[in-house]
Amino acid sequence: MVEEGAYWLAWTQISGIGPVLLRRMQQHFGTLATAWNATKVQLGEVEGLGFQTLEKVVQQRSRLHPEQLFTKHQQENPNFWTPADADYPRLLLETPSPPPILYYRGEVELQENLGQKPMVGIVGTRQPSEYGIRWTRQISTALAKNGFTVVSGMAEGIDTESHIAAMKAGGRTIAVLGTGVDVIYPHKNRDLYKQILTAGLVVSEYPTKTPPNRTHFPRRNRIIAGLSRAILVMEAPIKSGALITATYANEFGRDVYALPGRLDDYPSQGCLKLLSQGASFILKELDELLTMLGAIPQIDGIEASTVPEQLSLPTLSPELQRVMEALTSDPLPFDFIVQQTGMAAGSVSSALLQLELMGLVSQLPGMRYQKS
After folding, report:
1. CB distance 36 to 100 below 8 Å
2. Who has greater pLDDT, 353 or 191?
3. What are the start-end ranges of the H helices in the chain?
4. Short-list 161, 112, 172, 170, CA closest to 139
5. Is the distance from CB of 90 to CB of 119 less than 8 angstroms?
6. Which of 231, 283, 301, 317 is 20 to 30 A away from residue 214, measured at CA?
7. How far is CA 357 from CA 120, 189, 323, 353, 360, in A?
8. Closest CA to 25 of 88, 101, 97
9. What DSSP letter does each residue of 143-165 carry, written as one string?
10. Taking residues 224-242, what's their average pLDDT?
11. CA dihedral sign, ordered 369, 247, 269, 119
């Protein structure tokens, strides 16, 4: 029997099929194995699968053999997860576009993958000021000493400073690359790369030997946001990849913090924009920041997650039950809940209101919902 993970890989070999469509197919068919064997008409029921893409599926699917493909891929890329794997990072799996394949190198810590150890993303400009460097070092050090894992992108500037400071403080760090996990970019960070492999993890959605490509880096920012419970933007101009990360964080229901700067400082313009849009301030009193980050709810432990929650619930209609099953103890955006249930937005909204009145669901700012 071919494992489900093999179908996640096989679908990525068909042009026009990306992470969002894969997630929709999984939700529609239940498994990607079922989707693989579905007819053209059945596949056409999936939102976003247009005529041209369906033609590509029909033409290319017949030439692929998932089991053989998976075996060969494992030989070339020994360490990777698919969403079918129990070790796939839980927080990333909550997003609308989890990478179908997530490659890794380094030391895996299961608590991070299960969402039991908090991870915080730190991003910013490649050309930080002394002010930005100083605060990045202070905050990364404080986070590491208080049990947080620091996530960043191993780029020059703020990313590099956050990784180094976290490791110097004895903490763990995760670098999300826009290349293969075996390709060091920028090359000047080769020593940093080696250190991260011994004190954390390097991850990427791109297979080994994938070289740098400027289109890869904005996409990898969604992984930084998806892995993290909060994003801290230290210094960022208006046109900065850090703002892309912050946008993803908002879409995923993550908290966004920004370091305030002077109005006439170019590296601070993006942070000031975020603050004007509702991001939280990073203030001098780091204890307050740590308290706020520590207050973010954690994913329940393995033992707790194995207990069927439905046993303690009142009898619900099929529609309410469907929405309830899509929710977790962590806040989820409304759009994500709609995608998870496959129901109309109006029906989901009505169901959430009923569940809220029953005391089973809590609504948070930003149209986010969680189990009470």
Report:
1. no
2. 191
3. 4-12, 19-29, 32-36, 40-43, 51-61, 66-76, 90-93, 110-113, 130-145, 158-168, 190-199, 216-227, 241-251, 269-276, 286-294, 302-305, 318-326, 334-341, 345-357
4. 161
5. no
6. 231
7. 33, 53, 14, 6, 8
8. 97
9. HHHTTPEEEE---TTHHHHHHHH
10. 95
11. positive
d(CA 290, CA 143): 7
Give the pTM. 0.78
R_g of the chain computed on alpha carbons: 21
Q: Which pair of tokens denotes residue 191? A: 């020593």
The mean pLDDT value of the chain amounts to 89
Give strand pairing partners of 258. Answer: 233, 281
* Structure-block tokens of residue 206: 């791109």
DSSP letter, residue 271: H
Coil vs helix vs strand at 350: helix
Q: From CA 184, how far away is CA 19, in angstroms rounded? A: 25
pLDDT tens sequence across 142-180: 999 999 999 999 999 999 999 999 999 999 999 999 999
Q: What are the φ and ψ backbone dihedral angles of 160, each rounded to 5 degrees?
A: -60, -45
Q: Which residues contact 96 (CB under 8 A, 6 or more apart)?
A: 20, 23, 251, 335, 336, 339
Joined together, the tokens standing for residue 48 give 């976003």
Q: Answer whether 212's CB lies under 8 Å from 178's CB.
A: yes
Backbone angles phi, psi at 106, to 5 degrees: 120, -150
The answer to whether 368 touches 333, Cβ cutoff 8 Å, is yes
- Reading the block at residue 171, the tokens are 């903490």
Taking alpha carbons only, the member of 139, 184, 185, 179 closest to residue 163 is 139
* Torsions phi, psi for 122 (to 5 deg): -125, 120
